[in-house]
Amino acid sequence: MAARCLQSPVLAGSATFAALGALVLYYAEPSAYGKHTESLIPMAISLPARTAWFLQELPSFAVAVGFLALQPHSLFAPPGTVLLCLFCAHYFYRTFIYSLLTRGRPFPAVLLFRGIVFCIGNGVLQGYYLTYCAEYPEEWYTDIRFSFGVFLFILGMGINIHSDWILRQLRKPGEVIYRIPEGGLFTYVSGANFLGEIIEWIGYAVASWSLPALAFAFFSLCFLGLRAFHHHRFYLKMFEDYPKSRKALIPFIF
Ligand code: NDX
Mutation test of ligand 1: which of 51, 111, 122 has the most ligand atoms closer than 8 Å to its C-beta? Predict the structure, then answer.
């Protein structure tokens, strides 16, 4: 497998995701969907949230499943295959469960297009690396990096799914108003769903010990960390009774 690995596209892809993360921090503008739509792109052409999230996330899932089909078929799956299954599990949730249940407001078409490109790129990068480039020693399954990373991934995914659920319960179907989220990690931070997702991708990066996974974890940290900060600022402005002890992303700290 490793003989077919082309290092330059992997390096270029990883560098692109890392650079996008840095760009997000450099501009520090809110991404103009959800709470931050109207202030930034009024009158934008948009699609229903369910359709938009489904179309946007599907490529990551489909591309990763395509690479999974290229993995060696043996009784004991190599670590690369298991890691790709974790990636597929996340995008199965995001594409077929989150997207179809969301009660979010319409999503701007121009950002949807960028989101699709992003998700294709990330699916190809992670899938290609794990299929053709990754070489794990036999004892990788007992390596602390693998076990701790998978633990973080599952913990983060649990926090993310639970927090997504809390946000969904804040609205009745058809409503588009905002309420103060309560419960779970929202007790401590405004961006509990983002904190879960960041922990998840850091866990994935530790478990796969690879540049592409590190680059995606870095992007997620920059993009979702900043989004948590913008959400926190939005809540403080909108709700006079917003809990004073609640932080943006990291409990008790930030
Ligand atoms: N999709 C990842 N940038 C993004 C789409 C947009 O999966 O060009 C990154 C992803 C893309 C972005 C993606 C990449 C960067 C792009 C950007 C568009 C522009 C940007 C391409 C691909 C770009 C440069 C120029 C730098 C290159 O009405 P509503 O929608 O607000 O309702 C919300 C509701 N809600 C509430 N309801 C009632 N009361 C309240 N107080 C509420 N607060 C929220 O909950 C939603 O229905 C729902 C969740 O909203 P929100 O805003 O908390 O989360 P959201 O940002 O929508 O993310 C949803 C989930 C979440 O679990 C998050 O962790 C995950 O998706 N996610 C999201 C974005 C990226 C990502 C994960 C990742 O990088 N890993």
Answer: 111
